[in-house]
Amino acid sequence: MLDALRATRAPVASRSNALHAGAWWLWALGLAVAASRTTNPLLLGLLVGVAGYVVAARRTDAPWARSYGAFVKLGLLVIGVRVVFSVALGSPIAGTHVLFTLPEVPMPGWADGVRIGGRVFAEQIVFALYDGAKLAALLICVGAANALANPARLLKSLPGALYEAGVAVVVAMTFAPNMVADVLRLRTARRLRGRPTGGVRAVAQIGLPVLEGALERSVAVAASMDARGYGRTAQVPPAVRHTTTALTLGGLLGVCAGSYGLLAAEGARYGVPLLVAGLVAAAGGLWLGGRRSVRSRYRPDRWGVRSWLVAGSGAAVAALMIRAATVPGGEALHPGVVPLTAPELPLWPALSVLIGLLPAFVAPVPAGAAPAGAVPAGAKESTR
């Protein structure tokens, strides 16, 4: 019995049992899709809490793992900007509870419908808060993927057809982690010199070196990959090349159309079939395109049972949330603002969101967060 319990316990992370980086991204994208289907602040807060708990339980001490806090701050900034724009530029929500009145700027006749200033209603503020919280939750879910997935291992797992775009992917995937690491380094240096690390002046003095240093490091990595022949291709017959192009472009178009259908309020019926067809076509195109690659892969990451569980938990949260919007009682996902009503926490959508906590129990535990006395998988065999 004890042996069975130990077998189900999450092992200490090592090189051999590390979770596939793509599983973290699929899990986070599933949470993001769920966040896009609701404006209920209670559900959005629950999604952010689930993402934060998993990040706290399974992130490492790597530089990119510190980017989650930056995404949380960015989400709060998005909410603030959304509220400010709603107050300054007005809102299509017709309210009845006037909070205050701003001086209104007269607009010319060709700008009918545009208003700057005027009366500010409580309904429009609440609507702006709901809308901003939805976008903030999307950003925080993406930040969770950035904090948990190793960008280098994710790049190594790219299909062979995408090796030509690998240099651009390196710059995009390593810019944010490098920027966070540079911010921490410069703030520590300023603190040791007795200089302030907060305020507008300090941010202005740190901002430019941080952006410049992060971009230079990302470009240096990309240049080293290019110098080593990353993305080198082989000759393939024209028919295979044309078929690859048609399948890849058609699949990507199907994925875009299906994703738009899933994000739209009434597009779930055609969104899922288009998304599945697009994924199948794109996978076929990537498989054919991989024949052009002459690059070998050293110690490829394996997609094991735990990777399936992590990715499947995110997909289950997204599917259940989409389903909850189409059944009776789905109006709780979008609480009304006219008239103002307190949002309610629907039971089944909330329980479906809690499925996203599964990675905190099945993903391998980082070495720094492992309990005392824990032994990494394979360590006993190596000491025999």
From TrEMBL:
Organism for this UniProt entry: Streptomyces kurssanovii
Superkingdom: Bacteria
Sequence intervals crossing the membrane: 12-35, 41-58, 70-94, 161-184, 246-264, 270-288, 308-327, 347-375
Leader sequence segment: none
Protein name: Energy-coupling factor transporter transmembrane protein EcfT
Keywords: Membrane, Transmembrane, Transmembrane helix
